[in-house]
């Protein structure tokens, strides 16, 4: 569709802004904008103000680099949690995923990505230095790596493992294996192979 | 995911706002919000301000009810267009679709929907009265119905046809038939049947 077919510059600008979002093409952007046009003015102002306000006010926890409303996030500020166990994750979405399992009572460290030379992301672009600082201070007992099982995730795992080898800490990585509910015949061979190698005594799994 | 797993109220509010948009679930909303968080502040402010500004400033053409930046839209204000031929469409998206064909030089009338008793939309909820007003004034020669071929679209077509029957105008409807590029065997039988009934002399199609 040629740009000149938009009947209004205001509409076109709004479509352009929405189309910048990931996974939103121009047709979807137009659908969203027309939806907003049908809503009450107050509701649309609230949408815009909430987005503006969020970007302006949001902070990153100075300890774990998670998104937060204050200088220290709720998780790091919670004294009931085990501050000697750090779970290293890629992004805040992983924090939310792990939190929703209710199986982890330690704290997190958000790397902000994984090492990916192809995308120009090196170790210095991630929050590795502050993580090392925390470990150096000596109160950390265990670091759990919970990164994606992609090549980049594994590279980052290995880099961190080597880097922290000199400190007196336990480094672990979350278990890889057949998903619960999955049928064996549909599991890919790499996962199935790994789950055989890393088999556990039966009594540990119940 | 429980709402409490959001690490920040500001983030959660923004996700809630995005999740109100059609076709955007909470997971997608979170992805969009986290994308915005990674952008420069100025860029996000621009996004929010553009949306706010659009909703505040946008107008509807007083003649055709199309979205416009001014009281009369560019199409209605264009004196080179044929103001005696009105194409009746459901929404502004249809105007844009027809404009992009560059096959129509008349003007439009945006109904704002179709008659749909199931959704509580009756003739009075659409811009039928101003359309009749235009026809009454006598300068209209042809009204082209370009509504969807749904039950609601056909009902609206028929309602308008009956309503405007008493005026001395030609009423037409856009041709229905096999799409260009479609194979006959994959065309549904209703469309194929209609395209047989409404067959044209060969020389008219070249």
TrEMBL record, chains A, B:
PROSITE patterns: RECR, TOPRIM. One of its GO terms (biological process) is DNA recombination. The keyword Chloroplast does not apply. GO terms for molecular function: DNA binding; zinc ion binding. Transmembrane segments: none annotated. The keyword Metal-binding applies. A zinc finger (C4-type) spans 61-76. Residues 84-179 form the Toprim domain. Keywords: DNA damage, DNA recombination, DNA repair, Metal-binding, Zinc, Zinc-finger. It holds the Pfam family RecR_C. It comes from the Bacteria. InterPro entries: DNA_Rcmb_RecR (IPR000093), Rcmb_RecR (IPR023627), Rcmb_RecR_Znf (IPR015967), TOPRIM_dom (IPR006171), TOPRIM_RecR (IPR034137). May play a role in DNA repair. It seems to be involved in an RecBC-independent recombinational process of DNA repair. It may act with RecF and RecO. Belongs to the RecR family. This is Recombination protein RecR. It comes from Carboxylicivirga sediminis.
